[in-house]
Amino acid sequence: MSSSAVAYAKKNHSRFLDELKALLRIPSISTLPENKDDCRHAAEVLVAELKRIGMENARLIETEGHPLVYADWLKAAGKPTALIYGHYDVQPTDPIEEWLSPPFEPTERDGNLYARGSADDKGQVWAQIKALESLMAANGALPLNVRVLLEGEEEVGGEGIASFVASKPPELKADFALVSDTELFAPGLPTLCVGLRGMIYTELEVRGAKTDLHSGMYGGAAPNPFVSLAQMIAKLKDENGHILIPGFYDDIIPPSSEELAAWESLPFDEEHYRKTEVGSRELVGEAGYSVMERTWARPSLDVHGIPGGFIGAGAKTVIPAKALAKISMRLVPGMTPAKAFALYKAYMEKVAPAGVDIDVRLIHAGDPCLIPVNNRFVQAATKALHEVWGKDTVFIRSGGSIPIVGDFDRHLGVPSVMMGFGLPDDNIHAPNEKFHLKNFELGIESIVRFLEESAN
Ligand code: BES
Ligand code: MN
Ligand code: MN
What we know:
The structure is a single chain. The chain has 2 domains: 2-196 and 369-454, Zn peptidases (Aminopeptidase, 3-Layer(aba) Sandwich), CATH 3.40.630.10; 198-257 and 295-366, Alpha-Beta Plaits. By secondary structure, the chain is of the alpha+beta class. The longest helix has 22 residues, at 118-139. A 6-stranded mixed beta sheet has the order 1-2-6-3-7-17, sandwiched between helices. Strands 11-13-9-14 form a 4-stranded antiparallel beta sheet. The mean pLDDT is 97. β4 and β5 (112-114) form a beta hairpin. Helix content is 36%, strand content 21%. Bound molecules: ligand BES and manganese (II) ion (2 copies). Ligand BES is lined by residues 120-121, 154-155, 157, 181-183, 199, 366, 398, 400-403.
């Protein structure tokens, strides 16, 4: 089956790529206050482009944080409505010295485009917009109704979009959502993601003395909050990767035996994964669970950083007054952020050593999600992917989180199709993030075909 929109996309590919590079030059790091204007700038560029390709009502929607981008085209009477979602914010770039080319100077190397945000998620958002442009330019109309909703706070928990979606605005009335923010299971293997982990991101603060103290004068008598913090962290997980928070595992709904069997048959080489993706001496985690189960269907707990105290060159003999750890937990179906946080907070309060006060703060949270696969939009997606990639689609889950996907289902009753084009080795959130250029190209074609198929 030929599509004039796909032909248009092929013909205009090098312009599409140049435009993506311009978007990637904007350092829209959502977590850093100094990049606030850059986030707004990226949002404005997206609004202008959506207008230019013929979308209507293109505008910013203000939130308490970075703005949302909205546009629609609703002239396909009697056809379904797609809600197209992605995010324009990116992660920070540290450690900057490990980048082989600057993170905000997109650079092509060996078939990849290197830049912060190239795979997560600007390259995928641009693929969505270029698919819409191709359909519109080739046919003078879209095959179905489309609403576009992009956010600038996905990497920091997505509070703005969550309250917008919870208010159930008429702008979000749709039959399904297309979410392009995930990855293929392996290069060249068309993939739909059907489950995500949720998360709670927390700060654990420990306070000892009223001020920093000389460690010779007071060491031995005054509490050291870093030592207390380390003792508390050590009580969170045992040597076998089992989380020790009482009740933490109680509500987990395990994957079905069919789903587990499907994961078993995925092309996965654990040794290759250990060596090339993780690069550690050994993999760790709960005995009796495969890597897929550990990362997709079991909760996890990680410490991200322990800022504070003396970290300069040389030595300073001080007992810091306070210590802090940034700690997050990934949640799986059955678990809720509210209960997981309450159990964790109560446990930390119980095990806090004598002599210190603690504060357990929730920074942000998102629910886990599992999406239904027996609907016509998933069928349209697998058909479209087969046309473009020449292979049957694999269904996977992902250990990452996209908090709004669960909300689309819960608040709007809109099922998501998570069709993403990243690769496992794209280095998202890490130095040298890249997007495989072939995936950008085939991603655009896949979205074109998917929207065409969804209209039938
Ligand atoms: N796109 C990722 C999530 C993802 C990664 C899905 C890999 C599938 C495969 C997303 O941008 C992300 O990084 N989300 C954050 C959310 C958090 C800050 C609430 C995450 O998972 O850490
Ligand atoms: Mn993302
Ligand atoms: Mn991300």
